[in-house]
Amino acid sequence: MKSQTGWCVWITGLPGSGKSTVAKALLKPLKKHGVKAQVLSSDLMRKAITPQPTYSLSERDMVYTAIVYVARLLTNDKYNVIIDATGNLRRYRDQARKQIPRFMEAYVRCTLDVAVQREMKRRHFTHAPKGIYKKAIEKQSRTVPGVGVPYEEPLKPEVTVDSDKLTPTTCAKQIFETLSKLFLQKS
Question: Which residues lie below 8 Å from residue 62, measured CB to CB, with a gap of 6+?
């Protein structure tokens, strides 16, 4: 009998949409239900792989390939993974879907205007780069998803939450409910 692998949820959305906050909030209902999960942050992974990031396409390819690889290894060893990453191109998330059997995509939808306002008002930048939208607006950066480079919205995410209308806790609850139906409830 083949033992079951862990699952992976990729939380995607524009920079400033609330992905990291929602990922952190998702850990609470999981813990309450006795489920452990590891958050893989693209910001932290990028710092380890490319300490002086350029955010070029080739660098993004390398970072997202590494994130998917690590997530696949962890889920194969029965660990549950939450990927906290923009993954601006669908192909990054599609690659994870192809390689990780128990995978779901959670889209943290937010208007660009709200994401820009949030990022500009943010006081604490735990691991995210600072002032990206300001740099993009002032034409100092051409690599910001949704402004200088495309952010390709998911075509068929398992769950979409509107972070410009809902609290992070409510977004996390909705993601947890979908995750629970797919991976936690016994059929």
Answer: 49, 50
Domain count within the chain: 1
CATH (domain of 66): 3.40.50.300
Classify residue 81: in a domain, yes or no: yes
Name the residue type at position 129: P
Cα–Cα distance list, 56 to 46, 60, 83, 96, 187 (Å): 12, 6, 20, 20, 44
In angstroms, the CA 49 to CA 106 distance is 25
| Residues in Cβ contact with 70 at an 8 Å cutoff, skipping those fewer than 6 apart | 40, 45
Segment 163-177, tens digit of pLDDT: 999 999 999 999 999
Which amino acid is residue 40, in one-letter code? Answer: L
In a domain, 63, yes or no: yes
Q: What φ, ψ does residue 16 adopt, rounded to 5°?
A: 85, 0
- Asked whether residue 3 is assigned to any structural domain, the reply reads no
**pLDDT (tens digit, 9 = 90+) per residue, 93-111?**
999 999 999 999 999 999 9
**Structural domain contains residue 112:** yes
User: In angstroms, what CA-CA distances link 142 with 56, 57, 113, 139?
Assistant: 9, 11, 17, 7
Question: Do the strands 159-162 and 8-12 form a parallel or antiparallel pair, or are they unpaired?
Answer: unpaired
List the domain range (segments joined by +) for residue 105: 8-181
**What predicted TM-score, i.e. pTM, was given to this entire model?**
0.91
